């Protein structure tokens, strides 16, 4: 379900900028995400997509600008703070703990405990829940007891996405969730997003390089070019051709600037 009324935006960024020393990674970004909306961030390498996502996850602080959640201004102090507000990230460079098992990673900082105030880790319950989540998502791992470091890149990615999806998040931030994945696994992740869209009002921002994939699942598209959002349009009002054209033109003018 897409709500286009800005009054009910779950997330809004106003005039967000971010510099790393002399590098201006983001330059006056205005971004909005409606409840239940799936927004795709497209753009070339180095455009600023991950930097923007990392601001929304509380990993980076913006150099200037403000964030609003449910219309209220917030300063995200950390990734944990953002998670406590229902913002759940899946980074490009992941965020799993290599030395821990699949099931421990699935419940990282959200461990199921028993024994009341004693808070004894309930490994059995976590194993069972992790296995059933992964099975429901169609993700194949040798076992939920296997260490993350023993998994393939695609399997790790799938575990990270599964963890985010089953976290009761209100806002899912997926930075290239299908990057390291084979065709079958990518299709599964996109299916999960489609199902989420039908059965919940979770809002999603997804960064992707494969336009064809996201065109299928997203409601709206923002193009990030050189630290700015240069294009914001409902998916049904644009096309892969139009977007490709915009990016090709960017190359042309950049190379003309170089060659004079
Ligand atoms: N921690 C950092 N320190 C310094 N510069 C950074 C840092 N993170 C990103 N940058 C710079 O900011 C710019 C945007 O990078 P970013 O990672 O956001 O791009 P991206 O759009 O995610 O690219 P890609 O599609 O390759 O993942 C780049 O010029 C990059 O070198
Ligand atoms: Mg990136």
Characteristic terms for this protein:
single chain; about 260 residues; alpha/beta; Rossmann fold; 4-stranded antiparallel beta sheet; about 35% helix; binds adenosine-5'-triphosphate; binds magnesium ion
Task: Briefly characterize the structure.
This protein has eight helices and twelve strands. The chain is an alpha/beta fold.
What can you see in these coordinates?
It is a single chain. Helix 5 runs parallel beside helix 6 (183-199) and helix 6 packs parallel to helix 7. It contains 8 helices and 12 strands. It is of the alpha/beta class. The chain has helices at residues 49-56, 79-84, 102-106, 123-137, 153-165, 183-199, 211-217, 240-259; strands at residues 9-20, 23-34, 38-42, 64-69, 72-74, 87-90, 113-114, 120-121, 171-175, 203-207, 220-225, 228-234. Bound molecules: adenosine-5'-triphosphate and magnesium ion.
* CATH top level label: Alpha Beta
CATH architecture: 3-Layer(aba) Sandwich
Task: Note poorly predicted spans.
Answer: none
Strand-residue fraction? 25-35%
**How big is the Rg?**
19 Å
Helical segment count? 8
Reported for the largest beta sheet, the result is:
6 strands, mixed
Strand order of the largest sheet: 6-9-10-3-11-12
Count of folded domains: 1
Give the ordered list of helices and strands.
EEEHEEHEHEEHHEHEHEEH
Whole-number mean pLDDT: 88
Give the N-terminus to C-terminus distance in angstroms.
Answer: 48 Å
Helical fraction equals 25-40%
Instruction: Find the structural class using helix and strand composition.
Output: alpha/beta
């Amino acid at each position: 379900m897409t709500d286009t009324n800005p009054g009910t935006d779950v997330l809004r960024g106003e005039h967000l900028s971010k510099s790393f020393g002399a590098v201006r990674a983001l330059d006056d970004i205005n971004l909005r995400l409606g409840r239940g909306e799936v927004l795709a961030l497209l753009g070339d390498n180095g455009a600023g997509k991950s930097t923007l996502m990392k601001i929304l996850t509380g990993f980076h602080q913006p150099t200037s600008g403000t964030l609003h959640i449910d219309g209220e201004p917030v300063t995200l102090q950390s990734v944990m703070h953002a998670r406590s507000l229902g913002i759940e990230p899946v980074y490009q460079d992941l965020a799993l703990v290599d030395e821990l098992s699949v099931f421990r990673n699935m419940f990282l900082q959200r461990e199921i405990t028993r024994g009341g105030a004693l808070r004894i880790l309930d490994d059995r319950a976590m194993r069972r829940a992790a296995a059933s989540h992964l099975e429901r998502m169609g993700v194949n791992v040798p076992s939920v007891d296997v260490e993350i470091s023993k998994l393939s890149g695609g399997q790790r990615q799938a575990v990270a996405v599964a963890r985010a999806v089953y976290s009761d998040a209100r806002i899912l931030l997926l930075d290239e969730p299908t990057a390291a994945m084979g065709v079958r696994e990518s299709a599964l992740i996109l299916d999960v997003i489609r199902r989420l869209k039908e059965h919940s009002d979770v809002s999603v921002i997804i960064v992707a390089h494969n336009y064809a994939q996201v065109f299928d699942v997203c409601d709206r598209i923002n193009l990030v070019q050189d630290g700015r959002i240069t294009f914001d349009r409902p998916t049904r009002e644009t096309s892969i051709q139009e977007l490709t054209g915009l990016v090709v033109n960017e190359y042309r003018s950049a190379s003309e600037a170089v060659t004079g």
